[in-house]
Structures are given as structure tokens and as C-alpha cells.
Amino acid sequence: MGFIDDAKDAAETAARKIKDGFEDTVDRIHDKVDEVKADAEVKKAEAERDSVERRNEVKEEIRGDH
User: Fold this and answer.
1) What are φ and ψ of residue 48, in 5° steps?
2) Phi, psi (deg, nearest 5) at residue 24
3) Rounded to whole angstroms, how far apart are CA atoms 5 and 9?
4) Cα–Cα distance measured from residue 17 to residue 40, given in angstroms and rounded to the nearest whole number
5) 38-51 residues labelled b (16+ CB within 10 A) or e (exposed)
6) Dihedral angle over CA of 37, 41, 47, 53, nearest 10
7) pTM for this model (two decimals)
8) Residue ranges, the chain, pLDDT below 50
9) In three state form, how does the secondary structure of 1-64 look?
């Protein structure tokens, strides 16, 4: 009966390691998604800032505010 118990323990350990590995992978994927979203938000904010700066420059040129 010892062999069966050892096999059962080994199978449970392997299953636990697979589960832990899967959970780690899922966490890494979520972290990467969050990182990509944050980068996109930064790029959007930078583009909006650049647009506002350019619009203000054009307004200054039109008014002759150099």
C-alpha cells in the first residue's frame, strides 16, 4: 500500500505545482495587460498635451504674440 500512497502524494504534488505555475502565468499576463494599458494612457496624455501646445502656438502666431 506504500507504493500507492507515494504515487498519490507525487500526483498531488505535481498537480499543485501545475496549478501554482498556471496561477503565476495568469498573474504575469494580468500584470503585462496592466502595463500595456498604462503605457497607452501615457501616450494618449502625451499626444493630447502636444496637441494643446501646438494649438496654443498657432493661436499665438495668429495673434502675433511671439
Assistant:
1) -65, -40
2) -65, -40
3) 6
4) 35
5) eeeeeeeeeeeeee
6) -170
7) 0.63
8) none
9) CHHHHHHHHHHHHHHHHHHHHHHHHHHHHHHHHHHHHHHHHHHHHHHHHHHHHHHHHHHHHHHC
